[in-house]
Amino acid sequence: MDNIELQKIWKTLDNELHQKSKEELSLLLESKAKQTLNKYLLFIGISILASIGLLVFLVITSMNRQEDFIYIINNATLGFITIISLISGLFAWNKFRNTRFNQSLKDWLNERINMLSKWLTGKFKTLYFVTIPVFYVLIVLSIHVYFENKSFVDVFKSEESIIGLIVAAPIGLFVSFFVVRKMRKKQLQNLNFLKDLQGRLNRLNQD
Amino acid sequence: MKSKKEEFLEILSNYQGILYKVSLVYFKSTSDREDNVQEIIYQLWKSFPTLRNKKSIGSWIYAVSINTSLSRVKKKSHVEYRERVPEFAGSTDMLDELTANESLQVLIKAIYKLDELDKSIMLLYLEEKSYTEIAEIMGITKSNVGVRINRAKESLKKTLKI
């Protein structure tokens, strides 16, 4: 079996493939576009609704506690983190979704790896490990202080509240870390796979 | 005058074989291949407005198809992936569905044994693409295309026991 024969055998595949009509191809495109749009709208919708819900809660509770300066600072910080996270999250997701596939494999790998690395191992890595726990602690404080019907300072004077926070905070932190780690693990596997491909492609160019 | 979508579907209809062949070398199950073809069609449509050189439609379709397939191949490291999948596991029945041609089945099974990059290079070689086109699609130099094709061919021949 020589090289030409390999190509000849491969050519017989053309007769085996079921060619779709233009209408069928159009239907495939439309259903995929719809599916992608729905996924996109669902992600954006949930993110925006959850953020708005949280912001409304923060505004209402702050207005009811205008005399508690620390509580207002806590809520303002929480609001600020929410808005920044929402904007940067949507921006990054949109950018990743719009990676151009119409380039050479080498360029495509470089672009995708750069993007993923920035989030998983680069300057945004701290976002995962700092923002989420800070966010969690602040939100627990905001809810707890509000429903305790005491001022921020008074809550910290109450032994019951402190014990509650000491128990709840580590559990919540553990859960949030666990979720974030799981999400990161999946993305890191993807990044490592792409890096492996890039490495092999580069070695190929050095041969 | 043809609308953009009609023009796209016309091109897609003429070149759809590429989508199936790229999917075939990367995915063993029929449903994975079908999902991949659909994703490639979508990615082609997204990048269609940027297609300027209508003479290189083939290269554009190969590039998008290969990049899309690689983005969907099991998101595990190369080593892990190859170790976990038993040799040709379940692939025979699926190939039976595709073709009764034994030589073709043997060739496809041998391609499954190549690594992800060699699969693309071998596919382009079998499709009789020039070294220049392969170099453009893969982003490697022309001379390395030759080297790599020879290595992939050797590996293929070893599997085929020629």
> Oligomeric form of this entry?
heterodimer
User: How many individual β-strands of chain A?
Assistant: 0
Fraction in helix of chain A? over 70%
Mean pLDDT of chain B: 83
The portion of residues assigned to helices of chain B is: over 70%
Q: Biggest sheet of chain B, open or closed, and with what strands and sense?
A: none
Low-confidence stretches of chain A: none
What is the residue-mean pLDDT of chain A, rounded to a whole number?
A: 87
What's the overall geometry of chain A? elongated
Radius of gyration based on Cα positions of chain B:
16 Å
Order of helical and strand elements of chain A: HHHHHHHH
Explain what this protein looks like in three dimensions:
The complex is a heterodimer of chains A (207) and B (162). Chain A is an all-alpha fold and 207 residues long. Chain A contains 8 helices and no strands. Chain A has helices at residues 3-11, 13-16, 22-64, 69-97, 105-120, 125-148, 152-157, 159-206. Chain A starts with a helix and ends with a helix. The mean pLDDT of chain A is 87. Chain B is mainly α and 162 residues long. Chain B contains 9 helices and no strands. Chain B has helices at residues 4-26, 30-47, 57-72, 78-84, 91-98, 102-112, 116-126, 131-138, 142-160. The longest helix of chain B is centred in the N-terminal third of the chain and has 23 residues, at 4-26. The termini of chain B are far apart. The relative contact order of chain B is 0.11. Residues 76-90 of chain B have low confidence and may be disordered. Classes of the chains: A mainly alpha (207), B mainly alpha (162). The interface between A and B is large, with 45 and 64 residues.
Short description:
The complex is a heterodimer of chains A (207) and B (162). Chain A has 207 residues and is mainly α.
Quick tags:
heterodimer, A: 207 residues, elongated, B: 162 residues, mainly alpha
Give the SSE layout.
The complex is a heterodimer of chains A (207) and B (162).
Chain A: H1 3-11, H2 13-16, H3 22-64, H4 69-97, H5 105-120, H6 125-148, H7 152-157, H8 159-206
Chain B: H1 4-26, H2 30-47, H3 57-72, H4 78-84, H5 91-98, H6 102-112, H7 116-126, H8 131-138, H9 142-160
Helix pairs in contact in B: 1-2, 1-3, 1-7, 2-3, 3-8, 6-9, 7-9, 8-9
